[in-house]
Amino acid sequence: MMSLFFDSLSLALIVVISQLCRPSNAHVVPFEATEHLKDNMPERRVSPDLFDSLGELARIVDIAYCIGTTGVQKPFQCLSHCRDLKGFELVDTWHTGPLLFDSCGYIALSHPPSPKRIIVAFRGTYSIPNAIADLSAFPQEYVPFTGENNTDGDTPRCTDCFVHLGFMNEWRSTRTAILDAISAARDQYPDYALTLVGHSLGGAVAALAGTEMQLRGWDPLVTTFGEPRVGNKAFVEYLDTVFHLKSDNARDWKFRRVTHVNDPVPLVPLNEWGYEMHSGEIYISRVELPFSVDDVKYCKGRSDQECISSAEGLETSSSSHHEHGIGLLGSNAEQQVLSSSSSSSSVLDEVDEGGDEKEISQEPEFRIKSHLPWNLLPPRFRLWELFYSHRDYFLRLGLCIPGGDPSGRW
Description:
Largest sheet: 8 strands, mixed
Pfam families: Lipase_3
Distance between the termini: 21 Å
Shape: globular
Strand order of the largest sheet: 1-2-3-6-7-9-11-12
CATH class of the largest domain: Alpha Beta
Structural class: alpha/beta
Keywords: Hydrolase, Serine esterase, Signal
Number of strands: 14
Mean pLDDT: 76
CATH topology of the largest domain: Rossmann fold
Helix content: 10-25%
Strand content: 15-25%
CATH superfamily of the largest domain: Alpha/Beta hydrolase fold, catalytic domain
Enzyme class: hydrolase
Low-confidence stretches: 22-41, 316-372
Order of helices and strands: HHEEEHEEHEHEEHEEEEHHEE
InterPro entries: AB_hydrolase_fold (IPR029058), AB_hydrolase_lip/est (IPR051299), Fungal_lipase-type (IPR002921)
Oligomer: single chain
Number of helices: 8
């Protein structure tokens, strides 16, 4: 539990310092216009199979939080969900620095009856020193991997691409620890798919790792939960191109960036600093665990206002909004999950197709009571959500203990 506190405090430092460094007269840079799919369109809903797969990947990345604490032992044993994952074999773990300070994770094989996979799981940060390092304000120029297999010059160029220096430094220290082991596993198991998964800051490292591995021709499937912004517009356009994320068929995506309503981490580093999100977003619209397949949907482009980008609208204030009664809650997505009632009721309501209100969720005791005006606070300032929305991806991540899934399925 103490490590969970330090992890969330580290992320809080990122959010607070980002806001303090923001110019007082700054306004959110408008996102490029994107087409929006309607919630009732079939192509916006994820399939039950994908829903179950994302739930399994959340458990896989949760195990990475055992590295540096209680540990993961061969053949595949830990205090988290190891026993629930059938046919898993630990290959190696890595930790690039002192206890709880730097990048770490594990490599495992997933044998039948599970799908045949080489799995690389990247843990989020536990440490304040790590978070401070991640606050490096100077962006790093991104030079794509060319390598031995790309000597013919067919590697796509990344012109004017920059990425977060802290994230790039983490990947540089990690790559020397894992590339040889992954390459050896691919040689030994050529019919096994390469799967990368990361949570929080580990999601940023997974994004950089996945981009290089895609350029190597390794064809990884990358899934991140609560991934922060990694680079500038040129970089995210490059990543979208490399992973073919501009495809209209979301079911073909090889990079899934999972976000959760009220999670502040996907909103940092600041858009004003030139950072943007990449495509491939899958959005969880329900606040509290457990989720159902109806709570998870595909998003369109890099800044779908029906998904996590809707929170950006809460940071812009306009006197005309107040004059016309629009207020700060300009997006449907936010209005669905925040109670704007002035009463002390903690029940969130929605309107069904027949026009009648129905109760959908009882606000748990640990959340800020809805009769307080917390819904007027920009999402980046809701630091308590580092303990909740940022942790709640199919289960509560980062504890390295059995359970964490209120659905009781695991």
